[in-house]
Amino acid sequence: MQLGLIGLGKMGGNMRERMRAAGHEIVGYDINPQVSDVRSLAALVRRLEAPRVVWTMVAAGDITRKTIARLAELLEPGDLVIDGGNSRFTDDLENEKLLKAKGVGYLDCGVSGGIWGLKNGYGLMVGGTAANVRRAMPIFDALRPDGPRDEGFVHAGSVGAGHYTKMVHNGIEYGLMQAYAEGYELLTRKEIVQDVPGAFKAWSRGTVVRSWLLDLMVDALEKNPTLEDVSDYTVDSGEGKWTVEEAVALDVPMPVISASLFARFASRQGTSPAMQAVAALRGEFGGHQVMTVAEGNSLRAGVETPSAATKPAARQRARSKKAAQKRTDA
């Protein structure tokens, strides 16, 4: 089967290679001319025989929307577009509407597998009409893992269902990762546990917590047992946020996934304003020690400064009294 593939980055490039290995003719376009088969979207469309199938694999949001709008200008009635990026499901409805006006079909496909998909195959979650899914099935079969189709592919429903399913998949992923991460921290804090990487590896067979994510955790700890020089600053792709937004909109209790998302937000704060407020309140109602930023950082580093260790509660009360006096004078 012939396919135009737009976006040849970490995943798109590997997808092109996997589909070519399965015998498909793939014409790829990327803004990086060193990996692109053609020089422009227009050239890609010209290289394909009608009726065409074009797969977009670019960043979610504005780039995807602009790419599909450009395809709407270039393609002809009877052609088909598949968006395999991490688009929000609401964008799919607009994309379908735009292309349908031009007589062009549309499918949305959530893709999971990361950089390992070239070897292991990709989990695929598709939304759209049954006719369009059947038309693109040779491509889906080339990309999915070997074995039964329903263990790596699902026609999840109408347009938007593929990306919605992938969104929930990523939300679950957030929760699983956070659980492993919290277990890792607890193990490292207990002196009697002397082989934390070994503990994770021992869980990889026979236990109820085994998973591919656990295998990846084992790999990471074998490379760097103490995670030395690994920043705790953690970004998110947006799908975790969308999952929580949907939970609120549909009144679905989702405490685990919500907490894992908020933990990522916390990782980006050098200083937490919320916890500053908590510390200040403890000082006000109980006369508890309120440390300076420098003193707090010293404790984080494991260095207990004399002022942090011995500062009396009376000093805190005096500081609060002085601040109150300033407010009165003002």
How would you characterize the overall build of this protein?
There is one protein chain. With about 325 residues, the chain is of the alpha/beta class. About 55% of the residues lie in helices and about 10% in strands. A seven-stranded mixed beta sheet has the order 2-1-3-4-5-6-7, with helices on both faces. Helix 6 links the parallel strand 6 (about 125) and strand 7. The longest helix has 29 residues, at about 160-190. The chain is elongated.
Let me know the average pLDDT.
Answer: 90
| Domain tally | 3
CATH homology group of the largest domain? NAD(P)-binding Rossmann-like Domain
CATH architecture of the largest domain: 3-Layer(aba) Sandwich
Largest sheet: 7 strands, mixed
Strand order of the largest sheet: 2-1-3-4-5-6-7
Write a short abstract of this structure:
The chain has 330 residues and is α/β, with parallel strands linked by helices. The chain is built from 15 helices and seven strands. The chain starts with a strand and ends with a helix.
